[in-house]
Amino acid sequence: MLGILARSALAVILVPSAYILFGFVYRYYQRSLKFLRGPPSPSLLFGNDYELVHQEEVGILENKWFNEYGTAFRTSSCYGEDTLVIADPRAIQYVFHTSSYRFPKSIDSQQVTKMMFGRGIVWAEGEMHNRQRKALNPAFSASQLRQFLDLFQRSTTRLAKKWKQEELADTLDSGKVINVTHWLPRITLDVIGESAFNYDFGALDGRANELGEIFKHMFADSRLYPQKPLILWRAFRRSIPVSLGNFLCRFPTKEEKRFKEFSNASKKIAKSVFDTASQGTNGEEDLKGSKDVLSVLLRSNMTADPKKALDEDEVLSQMATIILAGHETTASTTTWILYELGKSLKDQSRVYEEIREMRDRIGVDGEPTASDYDSMPFFNAVIKEGLRLHPIVPTLLRQAAHEDVIPLEFPVISESGEEMSQIPISKGQRVSVSISVYNRLTQVWGKDANEWNPERFFHETKKDTTLGVYANLMTFSAGVRACIGWRFALMELQAILFGLLENFEFSPGPEGLDDIQRVPAGLMIPMKKGHWQDGIQMPLRVRVRN
Ligand code: HEM
């Protein structure tokens, strides 16, 4: 009996150890990028992974390494795996535009996105992704989005009113320091509730709701500075056969349970709206007047070839996806733009001048149209510059579906001193695409690429390689799975920024803004140096304009 137990225990220890050892050897010889230069690996077990996810601010290490090794280099990952890190424009164009689905998301990204969003568009790959994207496209067309403009403007007016009546009532002249990250996600959550499925989260009114509670600090609590065992566990799950790794995802870690809770809660809300919408007796007729994303999706689903229509779980997963992808992203981007304008009062005044001119043109009670916003040159240059310097998804992970050769615009020097203008990779190679570094490449954006300078968009030179969906930036990603909501986000940013900057002036509080850090938590979130226990922070002095 003891013999059987001892042998079983030995097997439990030996089989995974042998597997890990085999993985080390296999990866070392088969998927090696040792011909490329890169930083030394500080640990056999963790490679550079631990220091990368524990850096104080997003991109510090990557920037240092790009300066040292060029726009493509190698880092070591857990268990001896090599990762190819790229910020080279042609390489990114090849991976995202040219190769279509040949560089799917890495296994670990897929595992985490499934926990967060279910079987929705962010998780789907290949043909399934193509089918889901086609079903969602009509809901994000330019004409459809123009109908949301009034919602963006109404919500901004409500926030401005709230600040004037509650936060700033007794401080009309001097203003008051407000943590804007407390407010902006509330307005974007309300906007996404109404635009995605005609649902009132009541976040701006401070109404408690299950989703809001789960979401509070979700990224900071679950993705910020993961402990060593968690890093090893995730790396183990991605390096075993996919079906086994996916099976292990049924036993989520404490952090991952938050993602699952979020996904379940948002699907629960979407389900009630979905049931009401799909129980209408007249089907398509009942949905005709509704312009929210869910109604448009259900309408296109009813007319689609049944083989291509989305099933109920897929529809609900899209809603969970849109709630998350569509609210925190826009709120954070607005936060970073206000931060930059708080530091550069000269630029803020210039934007305000444009707003005043627009106000004179449209009258006191008028609201700008989409083309009015687009006609404000400096205002839009500020938005582009904010998106460039602060891409809130700083890195995307991909994995080669086949053996391949990635071309480079800026050749790199190999370990043996040769110039390389392309990089051969094996099937399964992990590729980490650094959006934050590409967006600051001096070769693309000029010598002052690390500085805030919206003017650069007035003197743009033709780029050798064009990328992304907007302003040659990678902030909304690129290619077949670029952000489907980029036009939505842009219009929402324009409406919120116009409304807030017309009513308020933003400046640094007494403690200044030097301590604000861009903390890596999957998304790039602002926190105060030495005050991480206080959560997400962007304290700005807000003064009502006379
Ligand atoms: C400033 C705001 C935003 C930024 C910076 C942003 C950024 C991104 C990025 C980088 C991706 C690619 C993710 C990946 O490949 O893993 C993405 C995808 C996506 N985004 Fe956005 N996003 C923003 C706003 C929005 C909004 C407002 C919505 C919806 C209302 C939205 C919906 C989506 C969806 C559904 C995808 C998945 C697309 C696909 O895989 O085909 N995003 N976004």
Question: Order of strands across the widest beta sheet?
Answer: 1-2-7-4
Average pLDDT, to the nearest integer? 88
Largest sheet composition:
4 strands, mixed
Find the count of extended strands (DSSP E, 2+ residues): 11
Q: Which word captures the global form?
A: globular
- Assembly state: single chain
Low-confidence residue ranges: none
> In percent terms, what proportion of residues is strand?
5-15%
| Share of helix, binned | 40-55%
Span between termini: 85 Å
Condensed summary:
With about 550 residues, the chain is an alpha+beta fold. It has helices at about 1-30, 50-55, 60-70, 90-100, 105-115, 125-135, 140-145, 150-165, 180-195, 210-215, 220-225, 230-240, 240-250, 255-280, 285, 295-305, 310-345, 345-360, 370-375, 375-390, 435-440, 440-445, 485-505; strands at about 70-75, 80-85, 175-180, 395-400, 405-415, 420-425, 430-435, 505-510, 515-520, 525-530, 540-545.
What this model shows, in words?
By secondary structure, the protein is α+β, with helices and mostly antiparallel strands. It is built from 23 helices and 11 strands. The strands form 4 sheets. Strands 1-2-7-4 form a 4-stranded mixed beta sheet. A hairpin with a 1-residue loop joins strand 9 and strand 10. Helix 8 packs parallel to helix 23 (486-503), helix 14 (254-279) crosses helix 17 and helix 17 (312-343) runs parallel beside helix 23 (486-503). The mean pLDDT is 88. The protein binds protoporphyrin IX containing FE. Residues 121-122, 133, 321-322, 325-326, 329-330, 333, 392-393, 396, 475-477, 481, 483-485, 488-489 line the site of protoporphyrin IX containing FE (HEM). Its cofactor is heme. Heme binds at residue 483. The chain crosses the membrane at residues 6-29. InterPro entries: Cyt_P450 (IPR001128), Cyt_P450_CS (IPR017972), Cyt_P450_E_grp-IV (IPR002403), Cyt_P450_sf (IPR036396), Cytochrome_P450_monoxygenase (IPR050121).
